[in-house]
Amino acid sequence: MVLILNQWATQQDMDHLTRLIEEKALEWALHPGEVRNQIHVLGDLTQETEAFWRTQPGVQQVYGLAKPYKLANKTHRKSNTQIPIGSQQLGSEDLVIFGGPCALESEEQGLASALMLRDLGLEIMRASAFKPRSSPYSFQGLGVDGLHILKRIRERTGVLVETEVMDVRDVETAAELVDVIRIGARNMQNFDLLKEAGLVQTPVILKRGMANTIREFLLATEYILQGNPNVILCERGIRSFETAYRNTLDVGAIAVLKQETHLPVIADPSHSAGNKTLVPALSLAAVAAGADGLLIEVHPDPSVALSDGDQSLYPHQFMNLMGDLRKDASYDIVVGAAALDGLPAFLGERYPQRRIAAIGDAEALRRHGDRLSAVLPERTLVLEVPSGEDSKSRAEKARLEDELLSRRLGRDTVIVGFGGGVVTDLAGFVAATYLRGVPFIAVPTTLLAAVDASVGGKTGINTAHGKNLVGVFRQPAAVFADTGFLRTLPEPEFLNGVAEALKMAATSDHRETATLTRFIAAAVRIKAAVVAADERESGLREVLNFGHTIGHGLEHATDYRLAHGAAVAIGMIAESRMARAAGFLEREAEDRLHTLIDAVGLPIRPPDEVERGRVLAALGGDKKARGGEPRFVMLEAIGRVRNRDGRGRAAYSFPLPAGVVDSGLAAIGL
């Protein structure tokens, strides 16, 4: 090992280091330099970590300290391990939440939990089929039968499943039936079980034992890493003298693990706390320390849970925590007349020395290509996309991906989407799937993209069956909405954005409607302002589909010749009439919205060639439909949407009787 001393190291610092080295029975030799001295150290160097030596007074760098955990350490790796969990990449910028009950108690309980998680936008459920219990009289789980139940739940709901295994005989079966395997804290040094987990390729969560050091924890991972690279480290709390809570969540361990290894690190605040009231605070602390994900227990009714009800959140508590976590995982949205000028500093701070690939709309590059080039590195690869909705296709996505691959761009790539909604949707989708996910930055050049497509994390492409039917939710790293680009927009394109801004005001605070009216009056004249949408929708994304169910049907019926903003405006006319026909909305509110849409120059009727039958056919294939039955967001007032179903449960879109749908279509002349 070589200790490189900094140029300000004193004789006192050197004396301290040599005494420390000798106390550990190591040999040393001083090598003076012109600016910095070096101390070469020989002996058993596994006694202390690199961090120990690096933090000693006078030490600037440490070289050559062999890690006892050879596969887990990041010394010889260019990038961290990323593990796909649905559309997310655990170990990237994504915060992955494994939510669900401590134990799978029955198929009904597991299915209810999975549906709840799906409604909140989560993609994976934790639920143990095997439960190690201190008492032989406690619920032990459903065993192998539980694994088959979890598989059926995944097939019915689309929610991925994660479960604990305890026995080497169950590893292979679990790997075939579930998506992620967990080895609990009590089995952290069950070496036969670790070796067996190394024989499969299913991702494995390994929990740190309650009395184990970080070094012991990482050495345990080596057994799995011998054959399975998909290891997820989990800090679940260590046993201490404190009795106010079950275990101490060691957030310092999270930071050390992120520093020492290339593996994803998650935390289990539920098992640390043993008390549901502490879970939110510990969750936020773990994320602040750098955790890539969380294991959180949530039960449909913790009061009747067969395992760990005291630490399991109620659904409403879990929903509130998800809102807090999404706020913490927010991203920059920069809006202004020179917003793009901030891009170089952002890239330099967040992504130094990374390759940049800009995917740009042909017309946007023609108008503003020089402006983009001025803020991107010289080696930026620029890929041009033909203007128009036809580019939002599988073929164009494949062409872009093949071009990136042929240029050998790796996981150190950052993709910048430059253009309107077509390009931000397409480029975002490419970024979400290229090499299993690379960072994406949106630079919208239209008002529609600035207030809608670039914000909120929806990416995707169109198919012959409908619009945006293939894609993923993937938040951008940042959005730079430069209002200077809006000055060159033709009026129809500008009004497309106005329609989306109007939709947001209609479904949010009613006071914003007056603000928006003033905004539109000024914006139509000078075309130089923008309304920023709130990206933190707290799982209530369906609210933003107001006007879109009918709107997408109209787009499909015109083969996408009808502009998106125009279609949404007409859709809001139809769907507000449906809300009135269903008894949710007063006529005064409907008339107010109708008048505003008409006053700003947006259409209130579709083109004459639109056929009612084609619109109805498109509704059944809409991505929000369930079982082929379309669903609609219903206004109850300007600024308020209906958010409960007939049983009082949270819901934001609803199936409607055919007569109610007919009334909406009649309101727009169909």
UniProtKB/TrEMBL annotation:
Taxonomy, superkingdom: Eukaryota
Pfam families documented for this protein: DAHP_synth_1 (PF00793), DHQ_synthase (PF01761), DHQS_C (PF24621)
Residue intervals of the 3-dehydroquinate synthase N-terminal domain: 383-494
GO molecular function terms listed in the Swiss-Prot or TrEMBL record: 3-dehydroquinate synthase activity; aldehyde-lyase activity; metal ion binding; nucleotide binding; transferase activity
Keywords: Lyase, Metal-binding, Nucleotide-binding, Transferase, Zinc
Span of domain 3-dehydroquinate synthase C-terminal: 504-625
Gene Ontology cellular component list: cytoplasm
Cofactor(s) needed for function: Zn(2+)
A GO biological process held by the record: aromatic amino acid family biosynthetic process
Domain DAHP synthetase I/KDSA: 91-320
Record HAMAP family: DHQ_synthase
NCBIfam families attached to this UniProt entry: aroB (TIGR01357), DAHP_synth_Bsub (TIGR01361), PRK08673.1 (NF006421), PRK12595.1 (NF009239)
Protein name, entry field: Phospho-2-dehydro-3-deoxyheptonate aldolase
